[in-house]
Amino acid sequence: MKHTYKITGMTCNGCRSHVEKTLQEVAGVKNASVDLEKGEAVIEMEQHIPWDIFETALQQGGGNYHILAPGTSESKSAEKGSKNDISETSSSEAAMTHSYKITGMTCNGCRSHVEETLRNVDGVIQASVDLQKSEAVIEMKQHIPVEVFEAALQKDGGKYHILAPGTSERKSAEKGSKNDISEANSEIDKSSMSHTYKITGMTCNGCRSHVEETLGKVEGVQSASVDLEKSEAVIKMEKHIPVEVFEAALQKDGGKYHILAPGTSERKSAEKGSKNDISEANSEIDKSLMTHTYKITGMTCNGCRSHVEETLQKVAGVKSASVDLDKAEAQVEMERHIQIGIFEDALQKDGGKYHIHSEGNTEKYQVTGMTCSGCRAHVEETLKKVEGVQSVSVDLEKAEAVITSEKAIPVTVFQETLRKDGSTYNIYLPGQDITAPPKPEKPKGKGTGTFYCPMHCEGDKTYDKPGDCPVCGMDLVEEVSLKAEKPLYTCPMHPEIQKDEPGSCPICGMDLVRMEPEASAEQKSYQKLLKKFKIAVAFTVPIFLIAMGEMIPGNPIYDWMSMQAWNWVQFALSLPVVFYATWMFFERAWRSVKTWNLNMFTLIGIGAGVAWLFSVFGMLFPGWFPEQFLSHHGTVHVYYEAATVILTLVLLGQLLEARAHSRTNSAIKELLKLAPNTATIVENGEEREIHTDEIEVGNILRVKPGDKIPVDGSIQKGQTNIDESMITGEPVPVEKAEGDKVTSGTINGNRSFTMKAEKVGDETLLAQIIKMVNDASRSQAPIQKLADKISGYFVPVVVLISVITFIVWAAFGPEPSYVYALINAIAVLIIACPCALGLATPMSVMVGVGKGAQNGVLIKNAQSLEHMDKIDVLIIDKTGTITEGKPSVEKVVPSGEISEDKLTSFLASVNAQSEHPLAEATVRYAKGKNLNYPEASDFDAVTGKGVTGTSEGRSVAIGNEKLMQEINAEVDKNLQQQVKSEQEQGKTVSYIAVDSKVVGYVTITDPIKKTSRQAISDLIEAGVEVVMLTGDNEVTAAAVAKELHLSGFKAGMLPQDKMEEVTKLQQQGKKVAMAGDGINDAPALAKADIGIAMGTGTDVAIESAEITLVKGDLHGVVKAKNLSKKVMKNIKQNLFFALIYNTLGVPIAAGVLFPFFGILLSPMIAALAMSFSSVSVIANALRLRGVKLD
């Protein structure tokens, strides 16, 4: 007899097969067939079996499923089943086992990762994954829906998927999702209920009211209340409404917002909602327009109103915009939701006078730059200080701020408040462009507007305006801008007219002329110092001539006026020098004393200041001084010439330093020159010239012969050769074909092509290189800490030596002893400049980093530059580092009558149907030989064995020996021996059979890069152990290690194993560098003393390692090591010169040689020597620009 029963609790094919198996095992059952879709079981039995026997069996098998007797409600049956279960079975539940398909696995690392993820799911007893079968067998305490496993895999990376047996990936995902919903809904109380959901995509009050209105219109909803700050919706409904119904309503009404079921991640919900939307609300949904109302501030007249209206209407996606001047409101009708920040950017770009705000008093903003709770609290506190703000709530995790205010406050007010606070935070309306942070008061020069101390006194601290360092007093240096300067054109008669392209003046009609580009902060600083220096020289030379007049025999100047009168002339001439040209030195000296950051300007200020004040006091009150201070004219000896000459010479040193600074970052400037200002865009078949700033991702650009490539992208049509020497340091032009990547700043050869823009603006490789060089130039090398430590004690010690010098000379010196004492004390203060010591390291680092960038070695910070020279062990990956990283055919070997070309044609014909990387390699090989091949039919991929198909009417099989056995193709012993020999060298070999007869084989290998052999040899010669850690098999790894004479190797390594190997070597006291692709080697790269990212630079995240090699070959490691060695040698030379100079200079200035040789050092000579000491250190650093790294 046959009976049909209802089954509840099934959600997937795994459930279905489990129930079917359980029912078939019941005594007396001949057969059981379960239908998942209908939720039914048809059971054939020898005699009638009560349904509760089946229920008991299902309960013992896991308890998640129930069987319903005909005519019984689900609820009643479940209760009854439950009671029978309690009375008739023991409380222990038997475990159940399900088999699932797994997709996305490619290696043993994948297999173990999936296995571990599944085992961690709550309720799983054991999980075993088979890589070859792509299957997982999971033993569980009770049934777990397949969606739970899928969610776990997605949460842990998202690359892998789990499928119930016999189910397609898409069907399984959709079906499981629907069953979950229907089962969950069946137990919901039918009375009025309230549910709380998460809402994503809301950015303003307009969004909030729009979502609230949409949800309120859903049938069965009694009320809906949406909270913008919490991003939540509380919905009261007559009966349970599935979340998909709400999602479909939101999608139908614009599609920007999403609703999340409680406890569901945003990503999972979005995927689920999207699938349901496809199945339940098909593509014919009428996407009605949405209307938002906004407040507008800044309008004063109808002209403003029409201007704002026009600007808003031009925004992409806006259907219409209507602005009301009286209400200061704008009603915007749009096809889809447009974030408020996009409107704000449009208004700012068009003048910046007007601002847009959401309805109501609450606005949501994005905040950048926060990294901890301290940042969050600081931003909250700063924004609360803005007038009119009532409350501020900042969320660190979401990087959001919700601000409630009495009136609409423009976002620029908040931006300016954060900027003035000196912080690195910024605030934007949702949708605003955050790639160019607003800094309204920055200088309009060529730089970034970011300034830093060249001696890094405060680490990486930066300033947003020019000035001097509060610690050392040095002039701040400006970072070089990442962008090429955009030319501006103006009218000679009406300079207020400025346009970014040639044309005519709208006022007078004259042709516009190109404006001279504004000088950089560096150039402005140099020009300012030069002007001051000229003034100082103009007034100092007369003072010097007057003072030296006594030494010139027969000098008539004292016949013209008395000495006292000439002293007053010297005083008058010194005023412009002291109080204008060099007053900044005294300001810096005073600041250094006030903050107790004693530096070179403390010494200069005290030395020159004492000389000048002594002179003034002596001139005004000569009677106060002992006789030995008086000249034969009866006046006190004055030292105006000493003070002014010292100050002028120090100013000369500053002038030379400013000039030298601009040369230290010349590497960046040279790179910046590579970026072209304009590009040719192709639109609708027409070409026109645009500025590179206007290029957007996806634009098609024409690159003509000899042109510089404007942005990063790939060739669409054409082929060429490109000179990449300015980026990689390699002189030979590189051949490029369709699909190949091209880099901004490189130079096209003699052919034209079109390219697709993929990375623009700050994302291009050139911009990243400049940013990295800027950052590295600002970073502090560990060796500098030694110089800083010395400098910290240096100034107080020098002041003490100066005081001791004065006392000793006053007590024991020859007459006039006080005069000698004063002169020598001043000389000690002046000559002991710690400036050379402070500049020794940063100057070399700045030049070295620039030199590296020109040679394709990008250094993240000075620390890695210093440590690179000390490495003992270099760990390298095989694939992509030593080898090319993609398989290629080495040879096709025929063994029968079929020729090599014909065999290659068969090979490509069948493999063209496969997506396997090895198959693609054979197709590339055939194309490379310009062979034509027909399209194969009857293609079949035999898992773990190979592929088969029909080409030109003949059956072709390509694969391993197992496939040959399967098709009864006998392999000749000689051929077998040849193949084995190839395999022992780590190569992949596939047999080729035509019409069930083996006719040859193909050898595929991952070739070793041409540069790897020489680079590894050079590193080993330099005393570096080179160890290869690879995930590949032992045979292949051994073959590569043997060929390259590596110090050691390990095969079958997972990312975790590589990290452990790095740790072991470090525990042995070795300095370890790790070179990898920066992605799958991330743990080891992070753990190593130096992480080196290998790659083209465009595909590798430059931030992922301390050093990035643009060209992506091991020769770059040799360059990096050589660069490190030369930079460290240069730094040590600088430190030696600076220390020797001070060690010898101070005692000579103090007069220790006077008793023996009668030698004294004039303060003026000391000032000259001190100024040139700093310049000599910079000059030595500049020598690095000429070194060779190969």
TrEMBL record:
Give the molecular function GO annotations.
ATP binding; ATP hydrolysis activity; ATPase-coupled monoatomic cation transmembrane transporter activity; copper ion binding; P-type ion transporter activity; transition metal ion transmembrane transporter activity
Arranged from A to Z, the UniProt key words for this protein are: ATP-binding, Cell membrane, Copper, Ion transport, Membrane, Metal-binding, Nucleotide-binding, Repeat, Translocase, Transmembrane, Transmembrane helix, Transport
Q: Which domain of life is it from?
A: Bacteria
Q: Which GO terms describe its cellular component?
A: plasma membrane
Bilayer disposition of the protein: Multi-pass membrane protein
Region span, Disordered? 69-95, 164-189, 261-282
Q: Where in the cell is it found?
A: Cell membrane
Q: Give the SUPFAM superfamilies listed for this entry.
A: Calcium ATPase, transduction domain A, Calcium ATPase, transmembrane domain M, HAD-like, HMA, heavy metal-associated domain
Q: Which residues form the HMA domain?
A: 1-65, 96-161, 193-258, 290-355, 361-426
Instruction: Mark out the compositionally biased spans (Basic and acidic residues).
Output: 76-86, 168-189, 265-282
Instruction: Quote the Pfam families the UniProt record gives.
Output: E1-E2_ATPase, HMA, HMBD, Hydrolase
Main subcellular location of this protein, as a coarse class: membrane
Per the UniProt entry, what is one GO biological process? copper ion export
Where does the chain cross the membrane?
533-553, 565-586, 598-625, 637-656, 793-812, 818-841, 1135-1157, 1163-1182
Tell me which family the UniProt entry assigns to this protein: Belongs to the cation transport ATPase (P-type) (TC 3.A.3) family. Type IB subfamily.
The entry's protein name is Cu2+-exporting ATPase
The protein's organism comes out as: Salinimicrobium sediminis
